[in-house]
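Exercise: predict the structure of this protein bound to xanthosine-5'-monophosphate.
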Amino acid sequence: MKQDMIVILDLGSEENSALARKIRSFGVYSEIHPHDLKKENIQALPNVKGVILYGGKNNVVDGVKIDVFPEIYDLDIPVVSIDHDGKCPILDLNDLEKFLFDTCKCEKNWNMTNFIADQVELIRKQVGDKKVLLALSGGVDSSVVAALLEKAIGDKLTCVHVNHGLLRQGEPEEVCKVFGDEMQSTLIYVDAIDRFLDKLKGVEDPEQKRKIIGAEFIRVFEEEARKLEGIDFLAQGTIYPDIVESGTKTGKAVKAHHNVGGLPDDLKFELVEPLKYLFKDEVRACGKELGLPDNMVYRQPFPGPGLGVRCLGAITRDRLEAVRASDAILREEFEKAGLRGKVWQYFTAIPDFKSVGVRDNARSFEWPVIIRAVNTVDAMTAEIAHLDWDLLDKITKRIVTEVKGVNRVCYDLSPKPTGTIEWE
Ligand code: XMP
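Solution:
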């Protein structure tokens, strides 16, 4: 293994993730583990050069005082405890640097080249000569996992790309081009468009739509998995925030871990989750290093139910095409205006009503398209992006002339709260 590691034992501090990121910013790899990790578990981790115990106020979590096993202090590497009542020796950046390099004698060897080399070794060790299955949506996380597994185990990986008809323009083609043609992965492309749209016909309620899409996705994936023989592992694009948000031993769950728990138990796969200690920006860096194209690596967040929650109310094929086409125009114009990466998320939505307009000197009765463009840090709250009027004007003119059935464009001015980022 190429990387030195600092282990943070989580005694309830809310700053554990921030500390891990600070350590990584010095070029030293760091992982957070539960406070009750045993001495031998730490010894079994590769290249551990030091341990930091990091607690919340008085190390009390939910009214109970917690502590590490006392034998942790007998490890033959430096162990430091951060007293959370304000006195944090090493929370100061200079002191942290001294701790890492003078006390623990770490080397600055945390970088994506080494991370990938280590993961390739670990994946090969875990998988052996068995086979791995991956649901490849084309989103950043699953794409990076696919590229990493492709490098580690080649044709022992099978990717399944389910096209539910709710993907953005060009996405299924891009997935097939990058993974099927260029990387020559074993890629099973499933055209499930009719199946999904039939199930969704006439369904207006957003929660119902989400449930149908989620359940049908699992059914399609499960059917494909059962057709294959000798698969022992399921790879997932779980990343570190997914684990933190699902609740650690000391933290509270923010939301259910969306990667785990969705698939039926009787599929009986062991999990391969090589990105589970990475933050999102690190996942992107990993994807770049693995040679994935920028439009895949810097892809915006995209909900699992896809355009299904942007084609508002009961989904119809004509409105679905209108939302897909207007979204493609919006993305193209934002790209040209240099806004990719500057505005956090942008897309269009289309409501299920029409309004009166004029086209070619005659009355028209067509749908409006809504533009949504927001900035946020964590998607829990959001502000609208302050866009240039000339840009909005240009996008509007293109949408009303190029997208069939659309005669108006509106800009959604709502912050979150009160609006959510998505409309459904
Ligand atoms: P809301 O609409 O709740 O969205 O303000 C916050 C962020 O989450 C994305 N989003 C989803 N992501 N599965 C996902 O993986 C989903 O079902 C889903 N719904 C919303 C949304 O695009 C925004 O970035």
